[in-house]
């Protein structure tokens, strides 16, 4: 196939523990710290028995980036220091712009936890340019009805953010993200700006890329820069998260839940959190900085 965008690397996301929660970490991984603007990707995937609610992330702060939750199956309850409390369900997204500071918590929705089922999704951290890091924080729950659904035989392409052809996602961001479901033997061709960093993550299934390389479950696929189409052909039913964005050419300095451009800014974030400048959430211990 001519004029294709070549694969640079295919990496396997290892299992890690976040407290007592086991998940897959696709970014950072190995020697790959980030694929700017994408700086962290966690994949959680669990069958929950009725009455089992082991997904509970206590209140913790963020500053300087956007932590985003893509729910493929299940329901998660979000609460934050801005006064928001919301549950998102299958094929829905919560988009937080942490800006200068927000405290939030996440847990399995009570009704879902009582009945049980498949609980699967992605938490993605998208960096924010330095000039925008200290803007006011915001929270955007995005329902399945708001997400742009592009359908082709055997393919459901849900555009969450950014622009693709004549479509634009509902999230308040220029970065491209989309949730993709493909039936076995279906195919889809993508094309992104030559200057964008492009990366796909496989939650489930197996597929062939540009008729050459094979990507499997828990693989992170990093593409080279430049023009060219990307052809995906599903060998089995598959789910992917698609990401593309312009790299941020600035220093990256992070400490736990803070992502800034200097150590001084990190110290300022810690001080502001301790002083209550990021707000309060009732269950917060008020002092311990959680990691994600």
Question: Can you describe this structure?
Answer:
By secondary structure, the protein is mainly beta. The protein has one domain: Jelly Rolls (Sandwich). Helix content is 6%, strand content 51%. The protein has 2 helices and 26 strands. The strands form 6 sheets. A 7-stranded antiparallel beta sheet has the order 1-22-19-24-17-14-13, with no helix packed on it. Strand 7 and strand 8 form a beta hairpin. The longest helix has 12 residues. The chain is globular and about 55 Å long. The N and C termini lie far apart (41 Å). The C terminus is likely disordered.
Secondary-structure blueprint of this entry?
Elements: E1 7-12, E2 15-18, E3 21-27, E4 38-48, E5 56-62, E6 65-73, E7 76-80, E8 85-88, E9 92-97, E10 102-108, H1 110-115, E11 117-127, E12 138-142, E13 148-152, E14 155-161, E15 163-164, E16 167-168, E17 176-182, E18 187-191, E19 197-204, E20 207-209, E21 213-215, E22 219-223, E23 229-234, E24 238-245, E25 253-255, E26 258-260, H2 263-274
Antiparallel strand pairs: 1-22, 2-3, 3-4, 4-11, 5-10, 6-9, 6-11, 7-8, 7-10, 9-12, 13-14, 14-17, 15-16, 17-24, 18-23, 19-22, 19-24, 20-21, 20-23, 25-26
């Amino acid at each position: 196939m001519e004029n294709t965008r070549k694969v640079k690397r295919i990496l396997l996301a290892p299992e890690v523990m976040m407290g007592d929660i086991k998940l897959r970490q696709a970014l950072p991984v190995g020697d790959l710290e980030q694929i700017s603007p994408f700086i962290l990707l966690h994949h959680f995937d669990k069958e929950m028995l009725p009455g089992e609610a082991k997904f509970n992330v206590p209140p913790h702060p963020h500053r300087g980036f956007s932590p985003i939750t893509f729910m493929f199956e299940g329901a998660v309850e979000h609460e934050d220091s801005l006064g928001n409390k919301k549950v998102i369900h299958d094929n829905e997204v919560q988009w937080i712009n942490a800006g200068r500071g927000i405290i939030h918590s996440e847990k399995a929705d009570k009704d879902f936890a009582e009945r049980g089922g498949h609980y699967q999704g992605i938490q993605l951290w998208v960096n924010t340019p330095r000039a925008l890091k200290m803007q006011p924080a915001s929270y955007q729950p995005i329902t399945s009805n708001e997400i742009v659904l592009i359908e082709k035989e055997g393919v459901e392409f849900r555009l969450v953010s950014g622009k693709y052809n004549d479509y634009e996602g509902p999230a308040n961001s220029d970065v491209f993200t989309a949730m993709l479901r493909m039936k076995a033997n279906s195919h889809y061709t993508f094309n992104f700006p030559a200057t964008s960093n492009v990366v796909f993550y496989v939650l489930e299934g197996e597929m062939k890329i540009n008729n050459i390389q094979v990507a499997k479950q828990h693989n992170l696929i990093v593409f080279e820069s430049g023009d060219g189409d990307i052809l995906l052909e599903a060998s089995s039913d598959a789910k992917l998260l698609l990401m593309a964005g312009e790299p941020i050419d600035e220093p990256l300095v992070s400490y736990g839940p803070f992502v800034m451009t200097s150590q001084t800014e990190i110290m300022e974030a810690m001080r502001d959190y301790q002083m209550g400048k990021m707000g309060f959430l009732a269950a917060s211990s008020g002092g311990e900085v959680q990691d994600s």
